[in-house]
Amino acid sequence: MSKAVETTCPYCGTGCGVAVRVTADGVAVEGDARHPSNGGRLCIKGAALGETLVPEGRLLYPAIRDAAGALRRVRWDAALDHVAGALRRIIDTHGPDAVAWYVSGQLLTEDYYVANKLVKGYVGTANIDTNSRLCMSSAVAGHKRAFGEDIVPVSYEDLEQADLVVLVGSNTAWCHPILYQRIVRAKERRPQMKVVVIDPRRTATTDAADLHLPLRAGTDVWLFNGLLSFLHQHGVVDTAFVDAHTCGFDRALAVADNTAGSVRAAAKACGLDESALAEFYRLFARTEKVITAFSMGVNQSSAGTDKVNSIINCHLLTGRIGKPGTGPFSLTGQPNAMGGREVGGLANMLAAHLDLENAQHRELVQTFWRSPSIAHKPGLKAVDLFDAIDASRVKAVWIMATNPVVSLPDADKVKRALGKCELVIVSDVMENTDTTAYAHVLLPALAWGEKDGTVTNSERRISRQRAFLPAPGEARPDWWALAEIGKRWGYADAFGYAAPHEIFDEHARLTAFGNTEALAPRYLNLAGLIGMSAADYDALAPVRWPVPPDRSRPTAHVFSDGRFYTPDRKARFVPTPPRLPVHARDDDYPLVLNTGRVRDHWHTMTRTGLSPRLASHIAEPYVDLHPQDALSCGVREGGLARVATRWGSLVARVRTSGELPRRSVFVPIHWNAQYASDARVGALVNPVVDPVSGEPEFKHTPVRVEEFPVLWHGFALSRRPLPMTQITWWTRITGRCFLRYEFAGRQRIADWPEAACRVLGVRDTGADWIEYEDRSAGQYRAAWVVDERIEACVFVSPRPDLPSRAWLSGLFAKDRLEELDRIGLLVGEPLDRGADTGPTVCSCFGVGRNTILDAIRTQGCTNTEALGRRLRCGTNCGSCIPELKALIAASALEPA
Ligand SMILES: Nc1nc2c(c(=O)[nH]1)N[C@H]1C(S)=C(S)[C@@H](COP(=O)(O)OP(=O)(O)OC[C@H]3O[C@@H](n4cnc5c(=O)[nH]c(N)nc54)[C@H](O)[C@@H]3O)O[C@H]1N2
Ligand SMILES: Nc1nc2c(c(=O)[nH]1)N[C@H]1C(S)=C(S)[C@@H](COP(=O)(O)OP(=O)(O)OC[C@H]3O[C@@H](n4cnc5c(=O)[nH]c(N)nc54)[C@H](O)[C@@H]3O)O[C@H]1N2
Ligand code: SF4
Ligand SMILES: [Mo]
């Protein structure tokens, strides 16, 4: 067997090490046991990476749109000449601020570095922002305000050592699964460890919580102001630390006292039970080792930066920072959210943690780059950037590794803006995305497994992503495309990189450049990584920064000396007067829209959408709401609903999971035009941003939910893609050897057999056609069998309760249908009950809901361990354990 290539998972900021073997049968992916972040474990998304390495849909060649609007394949040279020339003309005519870049936390550090250098040093604008604006920018701004530098002061080991882990606005179980497993296992080892989850929703994460505080959305600042007051009132203050190493305490406390000076006042503002909140405050007060980990429920808010600082204030007051097992912990979302920050990926930053608004820092960077210019004012932040495109102030944009037509707020406006932009360049790995549809120039990038460089995870650990596959078609590294533009503009010296290690070396040198107490002291320093040869770089083991010149010396815990990176080296308490979300109420839209992630999908599904294993957990876009709200909106579990805001609307399947509080609605972010007719939630989100960070309020838009009436519901499974034209509503997922379409219609169909042939594209009238129709009941089903193998099937009914897709999926795995299968198709259910395994719960081992319920009810599996022993479910990545527990609990309530 070939030697494994050690690389890093391209999904979440946990940054797990992955060991890959390329064999004749394909790519085998395992956890890398030597990687300190995951010690060999992978969640289902990591484990299913092999299934996403398929040629389907890849963008392979550069293309330019012609006058008639068609994309024409061109040579790289032609594409790059075109881009370099067109950008140059716009810059010469309208100035450097008329062009912009919109990049991504999914770029490698090397790509990101070159992008920033090109734009900030050689175009001379800071109009380069990143999707991290939508993700981490409130944390960055909060860190800068409190610490003077964007530093995450906690490691995963700290997390395991903490006696209290507070998870705020984080569905860790689904979004950072391996980190969550580390917390769960630490808690098993050390039962004194407590976990508190602060989230308006009950989630898979609350499963491990000793206490869940379902606060009213957007009220976190009240909660942490209340905590600050409480700690002060109870004398839980590290006076020596506060006096010596911080400033601004009195003002922050006064604001906290005035706004949430008692537990009662805080509980009222947050809509929480007073005794539960008091319990949390007491727990926090008496526990020395506390980590407050936070994610998008904190950052993605019009008060996001204040939320972050209200958390940090409590850690400063108690001196619980800079010591093992303590600190505020921003969980980064994307694989390289942190690396992007190191090279200054945001429009208001410079490379190597230097400040754009500091003249001395600008000079340092310009000197180091020997560049003709340096951006001297912050560029446009993501939402403003697309507004400027809409207003034609920005005339060209280069979008790289992000899908803004799906992921920005008010996403229909983004469509409009791109539609009228003079020049849209898109670098992507996929040919058809909602954003590539607007490209004038398409540039094919290397994907995970092909590209080569570094990423930095949530705990500041730099790891290598290594290539193990050849470049397909003419795909090239993103850094290369950018450097080629620099060369075409006459900067061959500055952009003459031959390989990524040269870029990394330059980046490392810049982190050390001027990094002295007198000049520009920064914690980020990679001095110990300077001068690596290609071979050293290739062998680079995961390493946390800072990396001192002498790498054998252990690095002290960050902030353990009480020194921060503000001018006086003291940390800042920031007063945080609480405020409600900008659009807190709207009588026409009485509910609140919260958006976020599901377990098995990644963002706009360009990669997870390719994996049958990942697709089966949640197969459709959905809207989840409280059963009573569902009743008053006139929608029903399993039916369809229109979800509408002042900005846009979508149609999704209704769920009443019981996880949401009253007046709150949850819609996942993943679906888009490639996977559904009408389910892009970005179009609904209000484009309000935090005034400091510019991060959008993705978790809070006033919304209305109403029935979406249809005459019939149906689904089809087919080995070939189906066109889905003239169908009111549809969504699709990838199955093992078929595609599955769910749909619904408003048209009255007079002749179902004819319509079914049209939907399934059946032309061969001599085909073997199993068909059943009950006209009075509006039921219709048909299967098309070719050479005894099922080719496609379709089921229709006036109600959404259609036969089991799991059972039918199983039929597609068979080379020939048996007689019982054919009868099953005719009667619309499997004759063998065991054939209907139900919707997938455990994606690792493909274990369905019905199989699990059967094991609970009839085989005495009444805990997750027993289920694991019998069915293997939950024994690999463990992400489904909360769902297994819920099934066990639900079964216990059933009448015997
Ligand atoms: N499976 C999966 N994992 C992922 C990703 C993915 O696409 N899929 N994406 C990655 C990325 S880029 C990111 S940024 C992370 C995001 O990781 P998370 O932040 O954990 O995920 P989200 O689902 O966006 O939102 C987190 C929680 O915030 C809660 N929330 C909403 N409003 C409030 C509020 O006002 N206060 C509080 N306290 N909580 C609130 C929501 O109910 C939700 O449960 O996940 C990463 N991991
Ligand atoms: N409503 C709502 N919207 C949100 C959020 C939310 O919680 N709610 N969360 C926000 C957050 S935190 C994030 S991080 C964003 C994520 O949103 P996006 O960044 O828009 O989502 P992705 O699907 O990850 O887009 C990545 C794109 O880059 C391509 N790609 C992958 N690898 C490469 C590569 O190496 N090079 C190039 N050139 N292309 C590549 C992929 O095919 C894909 O098209 O969404 C944000 N939007
Ligand atoms: S936890 Fe995150 S980094 Fe680790 S395998 Fe899962 S998706 Fe990949
Ligand atoms: Mo993110």
Task: Tag the structure with descriptive keywords.
binds iron/sulfur cluster; alpha/beta; N-terminal domain of TfIIb; Rossmann fold; binds ligand MGD; Dimethylsulfoxide Reductase, domain 2; 896 residues; seven-stranded mixed β-sheet; binds molybdenum atom
Biggest sheet, spatial arrangement of strands: 5-4-16-15-14-6-7
- What percent of residues are in strands? 15-25%
Report the principal-axis shape: globular
Number of helices in the DSSP assignment: 31
Global Rg: 27 Å
Major sheet attributes: 7 strands, mixed
The counted number of beta strands is: 34
Helix fraction, binned, reads 25-40%
What features would you describe in this structure?
With 896 residues, the chain is an alpha/beta fold. The protein folds into 6 domains: 5-52, ADC-like domains (N-terminal domain of TfIIb), CATH 2.20.25; 63-133 and 336-448 and 457-494, 3-Layer(aba) Sandwich (Rossmann fold); 137-330, Dimethylsulfoxide Reductase, domain 2, CATH 3.40.228; 591-707, Barwin-like endoglucanases, CATH 2.40.40.20; 712-835, no CATH class; 840-892, Orthogonal Bundle (Arc Repressor Mutant, subunit A). It contains 31 helices and 34 strands. The strands form 8 sheets. The chain has a 7-stranded mixed sheet with strand order 5-4-16-15-14-6-7, with helices on both faces. Strands 21-25-22-24-23-26 form a 6-stranded mixed barrel. Strand 30 (768-774) and strand 31 (779-786) form a beta hairpin. The longest helix is centred in the N-terminal third of the chain and has 19 residues, at 76-94. The chain starts with a strand and ends with a helix. The relative contact order is 0.12. The mean pLDDT is 95. The chain binds ligand MGD (2 copies), iron/sulfur cluster (SF4) and molybdenum atom (MO). Iron/sulfur cluster binds at residues 9, 11-12, 14-16, 38, 42-43, 45-46, 176-178. Residues 2-57 form the 4Fe-4S Mo/W bis-MGD-type domain. Keywords: 4Fe-4S, Iron, Iron-sulfur, Metal-binding, Molybdenum, Nitrate assimilation, Oxidoreductase. Belongs to the prokaryotic molybdopterin-containing oxidoreductase family. NasA/NapA/NarB subfamily. It holds the Pfam family Fer2_BFD.
